[in-house]
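Fig. S4 source data, part A: sequence.
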Amino acid sequence: MRYARLDEECGGDEDFRTEVESTIRKLLESQKTDILSNDYEKAIPVHYRLVELLGRGGMAEVFRAKDARLDRSVAIKFLNSEFRKDPERMRRFNQEARAVSALNHPNIIVIHDVGENEGIQFIVTEFVDGETLTARINRGSMTLNESVEIAIQIASALAASHKAGIVHRDIKPDNVMIRRDGVVKVLDFGLAKESIDPALSAVDANAATLDKALTSPGLILGTPQYMSPE
């Protein structure tokens, strides 16, 4: 019925129809975001106020929020509703918080808080004012110096996580943010795994270690086009 009405109103003008469909999709998406925001606002501590949706992935939504207590912007990641009853997804979501909290490095995202309320899990991190490496690549070619500087910072972050016995396992441009001042931040340790190599097991005794049982033998995790051949 909706499509028949569109055909009638657009009179065969395909460009106009495409524009109308795009507007409808955006409206429906914004309504969905408003509903989600209301649910999420009830779940987080009262000193946080959601400001805008930053991104939505297969497992979580991320919002920019205002921390009224400390007068700063933060990012809050919420586990998608369809995964809240999935024990494996919940473990991986909580694993990300444990993994990052065990690390202290200028090129790794900082976690401020983690919690659960009314069945909604959330992680509060620093807000990175910048763009993903994907967005930077899409903007145009990068100089050799810029590329090398970004690579050095990513490598430094991974070296620190490996030294702490944590392997990221999903490094890709979407999981790397570049601040406006050029500082790189590695994000999304949701697939991270504690190394079983004693040489890499230097995790602080006070930090929660990761559950080695989260990965089954032979299970392949990560983004295929960014995985190493081995």
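Fig. S4 source data, part B ends here. The chain has two domains: 5-126, 130-214.
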